[in-house]
Each structure stands twice: as C-alpha cells, then as structure tokens.
Amino acid sequence: MTVHRSPVQSFLESLHARFASVRDGEVAAYIPELAKTDPDLFGICLATADGYLYEAGDSRHLFTVQSISKPFVYGLALDDNGVKHMLTKTGVEPSGDAFNAISLHRVTGRPFNPMINAGAIATTGQVRADSLQHRVARILEMFGRYTGHPMRVDPAVYDSENRTGHRNRAIGHLLRNFDILDAEPTAIVDAYFQQCAIAVHCADLALMGATLANQGVNPVTGVRAIEDTHVENVLSVMASCGMYDFSGGWIYNVGMPAKSGVSGGVLAVLPGQFGIGVFSPRVDEHGNSVRALKVCEEVSRAWELHQFNPPYCPTSSRRLSYSCAERSSSRIRHPGELACVRDHGSRVRVFEIQGNLAFATTESIVRDVIAGSGEQRSVILDFHHVTTVNGAAARLLADLAAELERRGTATFFTHTPRLPSLRPQVAAQWTDAAAVERLFRFPSTDLAMEWCEDDLLETLPRPVPSRLDDLRTFEIAAGLTSEEIEVLAQLLDRQRYSPGEFIIRRDDEATNLFLVMSGVVGVWLGEPGTGSRVASFSVGTMVGELAFLDGARRSAHVVAECDVECSLFDVDDFLRLQESHPRIHATILRNLAVSLATKLRKVNRDVSILSTQRG
Fold it and tell me: Among the residues of 148-246, which ranges form H helices?
C-alpha cells in the first residue's frame, strides 16, 4: 500500500530528526517523580483549527501537564466568575520573577498573573466547587472537553508533588491571609497539585491549542470547551506570561501565545489556524523544554507564523474542486472519447484556489490533494482567484508538487502570471528545472485539462483512431443508411491545413461545415496566440454548424493546431438535398440540432457544478 505523505508531515518529521540530537538542558529534578523521565523522549503534534493532526516521534507518550494546566484552569475560572471578579484575584502583568516565586502585590497581596504558581493557586481556588473532589472533577471534565476524551491524574507524580510542595503550601497560606483565597488553603493547593499531575500527550496538547485557535470549540468533537468571550483573555496571558522569564523573548522570536511546563511540554497557539504540542523532558534554566523551543521557533520561522505579521485568511482557500468526469475541458470530442472521459475522468482532479495563501490556507489544500492522491493520475491547481502567495505557502506547494512528481502524478499550476513571485519561489525549492517547466506548462486550466484528458485516453483502449475516414462515426451521419452516407460523401471536399493556418476567419461568410478527419483545431476570440482560446475540436467532430444553419457571419477564428485534414460540406449542397434527398436533409438537420443541444447541455452542467459548489 502506497503511503501518501503531506509536506506538513514531512516537515515535522524533519524537525524531529534535526533536533533529536540536542542534549542541552536537564530533566526537572525538584519533583522526584519527574527526575525518572527518560530524557531522550521527544514528540511533536500539530492540530489544525479544523481538527486534523500531524504527529512525529513520541507524540502519544504520556507525561504530566504541569504548568500548562494554568491557562486552561484560568479559562474555567473566567467562565465561572467573569473577568471583573478574576481581576480582583490575580493580575495579568508579567512578574519578572521565577514561576515559583512568592510574587504578590505588596499592598493587596494579589498575584501578578495566573501563569506563576501564586496566581495559578489563586485561580484554582476560584473554580466553583463544594469539595476538593468536586473541584478536581470539574477540572478533569474541563480538560476532557479540550482533548475529547476522559482525563486522569497520574497518582505517582501527584504524590511526589504533594510530598515536596511546601513552598506552594506557603503561597496558599499567604493568599488566604490576603483574602485572595476565600477558603482553607490546604484543599485548594491539593487540587492545584492534582491539576498539574494530569496525564497528557502531545496530541492532547495540540488539540487543546487547536480548540483555543477555534474560538473555544473542539474542532474534532464540536464541543465548546470555553466561552468564546474568554478565549482572548486566556491567549493574552499566555502571550505575555506563559513562558516564565522567557516570555518576552518567546513572543519576540516565535510570536505565538504559548505555555510551558517543567515536565518538558510546550503548547503554542496560532489563533484561527492551529495548536502545536511538543514534549521533550530536558528543560533550560527558565523551566522551558530546550528542544520544544527550537521546534516552535523553526515552525514559526519556516511558515511565517508570527502573530504580528498575520495574513488575511478567508473562510476557505478552496473555491471549487471537480474532476474531468464531472466537468470536462472545452475540447469538443467524438462521443466515444467523451464516454471514456466521463467513465475515467475522476483520475483528473482540478482544485480552484482563492484568496491569500499562507500556511493555514494552503495546508487545507495540500491535505485535500493528498487525501485523494491515490486515485489521481493528474492534479491541476488553478490560481486564477489567488491574490497573494507568501513564502510559507509557496514552500508547501513546492513540496506537494514534488511529492506528486515522485509518485508519477502529473501536476500543473495554472493561471499564475498574476503571481510573478510564485514560479521563482517554487523553483528555489527544486533542482530540476525541467520539472518546474512542466509544472507551469499551461497558462490556463482548460489547456491543462485537455492535456490531462488526452494523457488519460492514451492509457485506455483507444475509442477513436487518430484519423477517421468512415463518415458513419460522425454525428452528422447518425441515422443515415449506407446508401445515404455514400450520397453525403460525394458532396464533401477534402482540405489539408498546416499548423497555425486559418480554417475559418472571423466575419467570413458561412459557406461550409467542417468535419475534422484528423488533428485538432482551436477556436479563438481575438487573434490566435493573443486572444482567448475558447474551445477546440478533435477528430470525429464538426466545426461551424451554428453559422452553417443560420447563415450569420463567422463569430470567431478557427485555426489548425497541428497538421489537420477536414472534409468540407458546402451549404448550397446541403440546401439542395432538401429537394433531391429530403430524408437525408432532415436527418442531417436533426443531427446538427442534437450536436448544438449537446454543447448547450455541457454548458448547463458546468454552470450547475459551479453554482452548487460555490453555494
């Protein structure tokens, strides 16, 4: 079974491999149970705001959440009490002190923010409950809304914290002294120890972050974990205070709200886009995981995710998606070829993209392409409605095209001239200039679709030969007897055309109907090569029937796109058939009407597909 790899997945795995050799930092030892952790564990998980997870390394290894619990319990307390009340219990200013410092306002006794231990204990005390067990149960239930599954406390880590947490007990009593805590502090501090000892893994952290990124709704379960009005409060204190004494450096270098824990976890959030969870037990002097810092810095740098340089992200970057089985190119084909395209055209997929492309808006497109890549012989990405493409998006698209190229899937980027930076950005990621040339080969999606259809037909038993001399296979002859076809054949004149030669010129009188016996002809509004190519006709089809019927002057140029041979049916001969062979005349007239109706139905079907998907 072929595994189809996303560039996002490959990038996370490359980061895992790159930083796995980093040995800086030490496992936190002041909590004895944490000192037992394998220092080489290393996991990464990214969860998008619509609930898709990318994982690398030890992403499902359980560890205790520690201080990463603080912003989430703060959110629960906000839901219970409101912002005004919570500001009387803890501030929101960075303290400049260590996370376990006894950092209280000298007059009010209020902790500086809910991310230091003093503020976190004060916050835990504001979770509404009538007992220790009730408080812990509510905290676990809240975490379960974020992760989508029941949560539990690690008893060994809780016991270790409980036996060594004398400083936190002292903080609890000081908070009670200043009436920051309204009840006896021992049970509240015990609940705080238990919330820090909740077992999580990287995928849990990433989904918790994605829930905040998704305005408080778990994108997988659809369950609201926190009121949307309080999400900004939680993210704000994470941004200003979440990384201990390194919070300023973090927001300057990485630019995403985040929270770390001394067990080695880091959770970061890019609002509206994703959450990321990283676990590696070796921490620096601030208590932050060394590897996790490097991973998040590189993710932010490579994908241009700093929150103070945000792209505009529309609701969806995918405007339309369809296959050639649903909507074929404007090539007019013989009915036999059309049937093959309808039967097998699902192997050619078009994705119309829109808006400004950054990491989040491009990742969903990459995911859509990868999801169906096993069935696709060709993929076309249409950039006609794209406004801008930043460096991160261009790299993702280049990686996607390279992955498809490795699998032998023909990939084309169309309507790109309005995005002059895209081609050099993609070329910078590839060493194969010929592959880049193939990628940008077609200026329009319709030309790319024609090529993909032809390529698909080459893999199938050929329904129509490259040259047709038998009139019975043409639409115009449907229903005619062999004798009647012979009468028609006597009226036709053969004409050859070289590549680029005009077959019909706009404003010419409509004196002939053209049956394409071999080759391909193109229909142009405006001058060939500079105007708009609106259709093409291949072997077994007829060109010019509308003006042939109503006598109007030609409305477009028709040009040979290769060596072409046509049979010409003079309009005067057609009119004389009405007297000499009225049945032949009536049958041909009906066949011309059916041909025009078929073309009209295709237009209606295309419009229906466009209208349905856009709606």
Answer: 155-164, 166-177, 185-196, 202-213, 228-241
Query: What beta strand segments (E) does 316-361 contain?
Result: 318-323, 331-332, 348-357
In terms of domains, do 230 and 280 share one?
yes
Percentage, residues of the chain above pLDDT 70: 94
Which of 52, 192, 322, 497 is catalytic? The answer is 192
Angle between helices 117-124 and 166-177 (to 10 degrees): 60
Q: Could you give the 3-state DSSP secondary structure of residue 532?
A: strand
Look up the domain containing 142 and give its range: 7-302
SS3 596: helix
Q: What is the pTM of this model?
A: 0.77
Task: Give 468-504 pLDDT, tens digit per residue.
Answer: 888 988 989 999 999 999 999 999 999 999 999 999 9
CB atoms within 10 A of CB 84: 7
CA atoms within 13 A on the CB side of 345: 21
- Based on the domain organization, do 240 and 370 belong to the same domain? no
Q: Taking Cα atoms as reference points, which of 50, 164, 169 lies closest to residue 121? A: 169
**According to the model, what pLDDT value does residue 106 have?**
67
Catalytic residue among 244, 379, 516, 520: 244
Q: Amino acid identity, residue 502?
A: F
Decide if 70 is catalytic.
yes
| Catalytic annotation, pick one of 262, 350, 379, 564 | 262
Q: Are residues 20 and 120 in the same domain?
A: yes
* Inter-axis angle of helices 202-213 and 132-147, nearest 10: 80
Instruction: Quickly state the pLDDT bin for 3 (edges 50, 70, 90).
Output: very low
Tokens of residue 195, six digits: 């919330």
Is 282 domain-assigned? yes
Give tens-digit pLDDT for 321-355: 999 999 999 898 888 898 999 999 999 999 999 98
- Domain count of the fold of the chain: 3
The active-site residue out of 27, 54, 70, 366 is: 70
262 assigned to active site = yes
Catalytic annotation present for 294: no
Tell me if 1 is assigned to some domain: no
* Catalytic residue chosen out of the listed positions 6, 59, 67, 260: 67
Predicted confidence (pLDDT) at residue 207 exceeds the cutoff of 90: yes
Indicate if 67 belongs to the active site.
yes
Q: What is the pLDDT of residue 2?
A: 39
Q: Is 555 a catalytic residue?
A: no
